[in-house]
Amino acid sequence: MTNQITFVSLWILLVLAVLGLALYRKFTSTQADNYVHVSEGEARLISHQVAVNQKIEKIDRLGETLTIITLFAGLALACIYVYSALYSR
To answer: Which residues does 69 contact at the CB level (< 8 Å), separation at least 6?
Structure first.
């Protein structure tokens, strides 16, 4: 029982990490400019736009990976719970 509480607590931390990363992405994307800058006067904006987009891409990759890990960990916990509930008698 104690072992299950530990694993569920770790899974909850994973879920909170995914939610925190989603919020971080949301706040980072507010800095993104959705317009393509092509004129010479906007040259300084291009480097900022590229940097923000690269940051968002990194956050997205990490978010996808962390979400998949969280999903599989949750499914494993559910299987262990069902197995222990059915066969612990």
So the answer is: 14
Do the beta carbons of residue 56 and residue 28 sit within 8 Å?
yes
What is the rounded distance in angstroms from the CA atom of residue 65 to the CA atom of residue 61? 6
The pTM (predicted TM-score) of the whole model is: 0.80
String of DSSP letters for 10-52: HHHHHHHHHHHHHHHHHHHHTS---S---SGGGHHHHHHHHHH
**Please, what are the averages of pLDDT over each run of 10 residues along the chain (89 residues)?**
83 96 93 69 76 92 97 94 85
Please check whether residue 71 is in contact with residue 40, taking contact to mean a CB–CB distance below 8 angstroms: no
Record the tokens describing residue 36, joined without a space: 């393509």
Report yes or no: 35 and 55 within 8 Å, Cβ to Cβ: no
Are 21 and 69 spatial neighbours (Cβ–Cβ below 8 Å)? no
Indicate the SS3 state at residue 85.
Answer: helix
